[in-house]
Amino acid sequence: MANFYCKNHKERIxxxxxxRCSKPLCEECYxxxxxxxxxxxxxxxPVNPRFQRPNPDGPQPRKFNWFLQVIVPILAAIGGLTxxxxxxxxxxxxxx
Length: 96
Hints:
about 30% helix
């Protein structure tokens, strides 16, 4: 049988298992009243939302909107270049 070692004390053989996070614990780290870790239970750490499964009943992610995310910036760049060209032409005409 393989020995499991305490999650907090790597040199100690575990004698208990946390009922919340399932990690092996030694006598010092085990809380018999809670049947769990004394402190720093991994079940208390919030899960990163990127790694959670999406809720099928919850809000759905937005679809990629080509008009807003591609076409509008291109039109803005063209408009900016047009204004720059007009300003340069106006400056050249004023200088004549």
